[in-house]
């Protein structure tokens, strides 16, 4: 009836889970979510969504939501009013800054939060406190990809859009569990594979769903992607299959690169990676014969001690074969969280301001100093890996962390927890009393995406608006308001009324977003950066030039870094990644009934060979022990994995949490943890 309909509200939002950036309408009545309705105008997904976007919203009304600030008193927390919490934070921050200098404070932004919130967090750190100690959790995933792209093509983002991936003749997926991590994007590839006779090559340790559907599946030894990629590139050049015209017109450094890559012979690569020569030749041929090739990659590439170099090798291969600067070509590092791209784009990085302008560049700093009316620190700050080390060595005394379960997500979590215990003052801002928040001195109740306005940027570099579906629960507030309250308590005098005011300021300062306005993002409209002042956006990058002074891309020679290896005692390689149904440590999805009824807990995938060697059956309980800690988990025997390779989904925060056994080893160029280089020994605890 009309009366009933009056209370029903339909609001456009953008999914809070993965980097595909699906948008849809949410129907609500009061706080009840009635349904998620896809919309044909949604630029990334049209009428598709996955289980998380469709059913993953119960957490918003969870009884466990924080609705009041919490202040530590001895071993427990007590509820407090905002004023008391903010006063305490300002007092402590000021005191620590006065006693130890601004670099004794550290800030961690969130890739679940909006662009506007990432902008404000770095502004708080830089302009109000005076430190560049600001980072975000893309340090745990895709910073190495960004590095590889910065070195070679100049922009750290996907070269084109999901439509370009769909229309490419050849798709190469490396180290990405695409169908579970980026479900809607993977259905595009599956469809193109079927309908447009698109070819698909998958390289992975584990026979995931995309591997099963591929035209060619290779299983390289862990950490050897750079080797086989370079051998394929070398072979292409030896055959004279490189794109001569593209290389001479648009790329620098070919001669130097050529001499660096000669050592990557097929023989050598076969020995190190275990990939038969014939398969590498087949890959080279397929790339040569395809009119357009795209490469998709994720954590299987980046979370290694040579993650940046492997990402660079991917980009080199694309340059050599002329697969940049045209539609349906290019590099696609798949972003994990909904706003991994945006968190870095808007300056939550220790060495870059919004738009990736360098903090060390005096003219850039001057621009911000004029706009913000302060003097800015010129030296790059600490990344989150260095912050943890800084707490251990006593130089970092305080941390303000928003929207991130760092205590479970960072590698070597026992070491991270020991750091938290050393902090003089720790502020955590979240929806829930997370494991990380248990170490906090003050916990601030934030609002999820459905309770705020703002913008997210998906893996395609597409900026999209989200609208307020529900009012903030209890006394919780959108993160941008909380950051502003903290800044103002410290005397900043910020006066943003709405996230659009924040975007207007950022657009003035950050060239990539010059033409971004909320009007241009109305409803299902979106903009793909860079956006010119007149609002023209750039779905395909590098059509005319690469963003370097001479407009040319750069081939960047790289060397292989041997993955971290332990002695024979630790004979099991523990791979890890996602499950379709859950998201990361499961903070949100485990609180959504539609999801937990299907997949209530995590499990370890064990190969049939290892199972028969150790007497493991489905349901067997085992313990994995690394030099850093141990996990206990139930097994599933499956031929998705082979030999002494096991797979542990990362979606657990209890005794099966992967980071109980990961190390502090990291990518040598970006400090991204080498999560994928985990060795352990395995003990069978009981067999049913
Ligand atoms: Fe959300 Fe990603 Fe699923 Fe789309 S594919 S609905 S963005 S989790």
Automatic annotation (TrEMBL):
A molecular function (GO) term: 4 iron, 4 sulfur cluster binding
Any one biological process term the GO annotation gives: formate metabolic process
Domain annotation 4Fe-4S Mo/W bis-MGD-type: ranges: 8-64
Key word Manganese present: no
Required cofactor(s): [2Fe-2S] cluster; Mo-bis(molybdopterin guanine dinucleotide); [4Fe-4S] cluster
Key words of the record: 2Fe-2S, 4Fe-4S, Iron, Iron-sulfur, Metal-binding, Molybdenum, Oxidoreductase, Repeat
Cellular component terms per the entry's GO annotation: membrane
Coiled-coil regions listed: none
Superkingdom of the source species: Bacteria
Signal peptide residues on this chain, from the entry's feature table: none
Family designation: In the C-terminal section; belongs to the prokaryotic molybdopterin-containing oxidoreductase family.
Protein's UniProt name: Oxidoreductase
Native source species: Metabacillus indicus
């Amino acid at each position: 009836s009309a009366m009933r309909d009056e209370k029903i509200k339909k609001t456009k939002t953008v999914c809070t889970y993965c980097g595909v950036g699906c948008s849809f309408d949410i129907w609500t009545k009061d706080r009840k979510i009635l349904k998620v309705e896809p919309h044909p105008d949604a630029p990334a997904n049209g009428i598709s969504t996955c289980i998380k976007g469709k059913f993953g919203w119960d957490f918003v009304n969870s009884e466990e939501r924080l609705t009041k600030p919490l202040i530590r008193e001895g071993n427990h927390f007590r509820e407090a009013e905002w004023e008391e919490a903010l006063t305490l934070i300002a007092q402590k921050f000021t005191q620590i800054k006065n006693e130890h200098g601004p670099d004794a404070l550290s800030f961690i932004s969130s890739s679940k939060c909006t662009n506007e919130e990432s902008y404000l967090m770095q502004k708080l750190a830089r302009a109000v406190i005076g430190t560049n100690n600001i980072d975000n959790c893309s340090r745990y995933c895709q910073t190495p990809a960004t590095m590889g792209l910065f070195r070679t093509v100049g922009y750290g983002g996907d070269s084109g859009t999901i439509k370009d991936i769909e229309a490419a003749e050849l798709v190469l997926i490396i180290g990405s569990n695409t169908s579970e991590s980026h479900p809607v994007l993977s259905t595009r590839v599956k469809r193109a594979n079927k309908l447009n006779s698109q070819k698909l090559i998958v390289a992975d340790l584990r026979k995931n769903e995309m591997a099963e559907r591929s035209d060619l599946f290779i299983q390289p030894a862990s950490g050897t992607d750079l080797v086989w990629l370079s051998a394929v590139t070398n072979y292409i050049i030896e055959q004279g299959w490189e794109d001569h015209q593209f290389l001479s017109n648009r790329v620098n450094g070919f001669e130097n690169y050529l001499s660096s890559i000669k050592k990557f012979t097929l023989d050598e690569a076969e020995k190190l990676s275990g990939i038969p020569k014939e398969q590498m030749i087949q890959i080279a041929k397929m790339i040569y014969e395809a009119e357009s090739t795209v490469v998709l990659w994720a954590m299987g590439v980046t979370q290694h001690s040579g993650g940046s170099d492997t990402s660079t090798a991917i980009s080199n291969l694309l340059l050599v074969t002329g697969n940049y600067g045209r539609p349906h070509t290019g590099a696609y590092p798949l972003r994990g969280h909904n706003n991994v791209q945006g968190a870095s784009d808007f300056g939550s990085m220790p060495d870059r301001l919004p738009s990736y302008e360098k903090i060390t560049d005096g003219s850039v700093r001057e621009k911000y100093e004029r706009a913000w009316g302060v003097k800015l620190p010129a030296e790059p700050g600490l990344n989150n890996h260095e912050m943890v080390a800084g707490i251990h060595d006593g130089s970092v005394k305080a941390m303000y962390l928003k929207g991130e379960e760092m205590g479970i997500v960072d590698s070597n979590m026992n070491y991270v927890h020991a750091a938290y215990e050393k902090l003089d003052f720790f502020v955590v801002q979240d929806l829930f009393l997370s494991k990380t928040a248990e170490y906090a001195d003050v916990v601030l109740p934030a609002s999820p995406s459905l309770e705020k306005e703002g913008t997210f940027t998906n893996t395609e570099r597409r900026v999209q608006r989200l609208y307020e579906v529900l009012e903030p629960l209890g006394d919780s507030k959108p993160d941008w308001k909380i950051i502003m309250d903290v800044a103002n308590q410290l005397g900043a005098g910020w006066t943003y009324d709405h996230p659009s005011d924040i975007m207007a300021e950022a657009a003035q300062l950050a060239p990539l977003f010059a033409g971004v306005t909320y009007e241009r993002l109305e409803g299902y409209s979106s903009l793909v950066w860079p956006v010119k002042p007149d609002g023209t956006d750039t779905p395909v990058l590098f059509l005319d030039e690469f963003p370097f002074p001479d407009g040319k891309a750069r081939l960047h020679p790289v060397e292989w870094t041997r993955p971290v290896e332990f002695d024979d005692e630790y004979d099991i390689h523990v791979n890890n990644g996602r499950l379709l149904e859950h998201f990361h440590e499961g903070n949100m999805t485990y609180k959504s009934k539609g999801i937990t009824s299907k997949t209530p807990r995590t499990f370890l995938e064990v190969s049939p060979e290892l199972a028969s060697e150790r007497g493991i059956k489905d349901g067997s309980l085992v313990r994995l022990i690394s030099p850093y800690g141990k996990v206990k988990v139930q097994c599933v025997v499956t031929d998705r994995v082979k030999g002494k390779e096991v797979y542990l989904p990362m979606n657990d925060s209890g005794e099966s949490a992967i980071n109980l056994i990961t190390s502090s080893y990291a990518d040598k160029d970006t400090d991204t943890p080498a999560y994928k280089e985990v060795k352990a020994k395995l003990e069978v605890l009981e067999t049913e």
